[in-house]
What we know:
Structural class: mainly alpha
Distance between the termini: 23 Å
Order of helices and strands: HHHHHHHHHHHHH
Number of strands: 0
Shape: globular
Radius of gyration: 23 Å
Largest sheet: none
Amino acid sequence: MRVSRTASPFLLATTLAVAVFMLAPMALSVVAGLVNNYSRGIASGFTLRWLAEVLDGYGGTIGWSLAIAVGTVVATLLLGVPCAYALARSRSRWAGVFEELLTLPVAVPGLATALALILAYGQIAVFRQSFAFILVGHIVFTLPFMVRVVGSAFQRRELRALEEASRSLGAGFWQCLAGVLVPAVLPAIAAGCLMVFTLSVGEFNLTWMLHTPLTRTLPVGLADSYASARIEIGSAYTLVFFIVILPVLWALQHLANLLQRRHGN
């Protein structure tokens, strides 16, 4: 099917308009974090003063956010991949019910999920006041995404046939899972990891409810800087967020594309 040449300029203009609409606010925020005075704009001159203040006051949130995101990815891999396989192969009518219950943390507001965790485990003081509490909240929130993405890959007909063939040749369950099925769904697993990492790093609603003054993450620190400091500091925090997160996201996306080329059908 040929695309009409008259439609190409319209599609290009629409794409550019959408891109500008989405990226312009972020670009303005970045510029605001690099000028001496936001009200005067670029005429006031550029400075790195606000970035230095962000790193001095909120630098600790960067490492902890990345650590929590990585921990969330690892946990959802260990829990989500076997769960996705079990749901994909189960013939029980309760499997669908369980899968719907699993997605409840996504359907309800993050504040409600956080409140439920506080009511259930908030009495454990050491746990409540640690980053592990936020990590658990992120796992509860992101696990359904990993299960859905990987579960869809496990349900492919050709993968079922490949599994039956390996079983008929004498492969055991774990040998079949680790040697045949997991390599076949690696692109889906990589996509799930990318989604989980992105959601964990940027999660605010649930984290805001679970955090303490000593357990702040990047989004919580960003909100705090916007609420209690100059607009230049909040904008500089946004720039720090981009500097830290974008390279990681690009690396994960590159890995997902590489796995798709090597293992995808």
